[in-house]
Amino acid sequence: MLYCGKFINSRLGVRTYSLCCPPRQPPCGGSGKGGGRRICPPPDCKPKPFAPNPCVPRYHHGKDTWKKYRALAMFVCVPIIIIQAIRAFGQEPHHKEPCRDYEYMRIRTKRYPWGSGNETFFHNDHFNHLPGECEPPPLDCD
What we know:
3-stranded antiparallel beta sheet; transit peptide; rod-shaped; Cyt_c_oxidase_su6a; single chain; 18% helix; alpha+beta; disordered N terminus; 3 strands
């Protein structure tokens, strides 16, 4: 580190002086204040630029990745979302299909605490059947 004309090596704790900046002389005429002349380094004595670190890559791989993901979102994701929304809202809902009421289906041991007590929390009248709406299974008389 170059500080005020001095090179300080902090690892070794040794102070050495650069070639273009001589060490400061004690003031002339003793140790009194203002008795001496201040020695400044010559104007061409400036710190050198730091050498590049060979371990740090020059090209940053993620520099412009946001542009790639913006283009991906705008030209791929948004059109897919629009197409799927048109498909989903452009169709008529399906109707209930006939069902068979087997003994292991739609068992209710107690009433649900909402509505009429017979419908599940996710009940949909267009798709789901309630107990008693289905016809009994055919008899197996073998």
